[in-house]
Amino acid sequence: MAETGVALGFLEEAEHWLLQSHQFPSKVGGKPAWLSQLDIPSLPELACGKCQLHTAFLLQVYAPITGQDISFHRTLFVFCCKTPDCYSRNDSRCLKVFRSQLPRKNDFYPYDPPSDEDPNWTERDPCVHSSGVKLCKLCGCPGQKACSKCHAVSYCSKEHQTIDWKHCHKKECCKQVPSSAVPSPFLFPESELVTEPEEHQKEESSETVGDAQNNVECSSSVDDLAETELEDMAMHETEDSKVFQKFKQRIASEPHQVLRYCRGGSPLWVSSEHVPVEKDIPHCSCGSRRIFEFQVMPQLLNDLKVDSPDASIDWGTLAVYTCADSCDQGNKYSSEFIWKQDFTEQKSECT
């Protein structure tokens, strides 16, 4: 079959050494494998725009641009808040995205690529980056607050120090014991993110009848609504059903996809509501416009193990937009733009 130009992302288990910075990984969860070793994002850059708490590392995508030397190595990092109340409908302030890129000849990595077969590399202190920057033992982001007792580990905030103290450091502090291998409660489960091209599927007959019935069942009593209001509602529901049906049909052949990558393409929306127009996407700090690069799918939420009977973090899809020129910011991490779209309320109630 012909390919669509979209790369689909799936999760796979991988040995930990394959997910370290020098392997230029794409991955979900765990601690970030920072690309540039200088000017790493920290608080307040990583603070949630709503509750101001530290966001958690969600995923990173290694996405070099062929033919552009300044982005021979290029990785995009996405962070999200873990506070369910911050996930207001179609509100993106609980999310952060950063871009880091380097030329092939740089101060941090060898000119030739590393072996993907030999794990015999020097294991560094996980609390100290190779550049000498101290990293938070809990989240892997820059942290200058050392434990006042052992001075052996650092944290980015008092909050993370408290979490780690209760989790494991209370047992380890000032004792000659190795750090606990139990996963941090702050981190998401770690997996490698692998991609494969999406293939065109044969057009299938429309199945909107079932969706229309669901919409009828989910709609409230409308006896008292004016006829014009009924017409407007019907038109909106029809358009939204078409968009949602297109979404379901497009992912049906690969239901476990957690990411769709197509730089310069278009997102696959889950709803006709809250779709950005050009003026909604701010230009890069360099002045260039931003273009769509990839989207995070709702299927990822199942793998993050965040479902709960009460409120939980949630999204329909997350669309990431980056500088069209992928401008050169040196070793700095450039803040990019992310747009959160949720399912319509009726879809949420009916599914």
**Class based on secondary structure composition and strand pairing:** alpha+beta
The number of distinct helices, counting runs of at least 4 residues, comes to: 5
Q: What is the 3D shape?
A: globular
Order of adjacent strands in the largest pleated sheet: 12-5-4-3-2-8-1-9-10-11-13
- Which series of helices and strands comes N to C? EEEEEEEHEHHEEHEEEH
User: How many angstroms does the end-to-end distance come to?
Assistant: 32 Å
- Largest β sheet strand count, sense and barrel closure: 11 strands, antiparallel
Kindly provide the radius of gyration, computed on alpha-carbon positions and rounded to a whole number of angstroms: 22 Å
Please provide the count of β strands: 13
Helical percentage: 10-25%
β-sheet strand percentage: 15-25%
Task: Provide the fold topology.
Blueprint: E1 3-12, E2 27-28, E3 56-62, E4 73-80, E5 95-102, E6 145-146, E7 154-155, H1 158-172, E8 191-199, H2 208-218, H3 227-251, E9 259-261, E10 290-296, H4 300-304, E11 317-323, E12 334-335, E13 337-341, H5 345-350
Antiparallel strand pairs: 1-8, 1-9, 2-3, 2-8, 3-4, 4-5, 5-12, 6-7, 9-10, 10-11, 11-13
Helix pairs in contact: 2-3
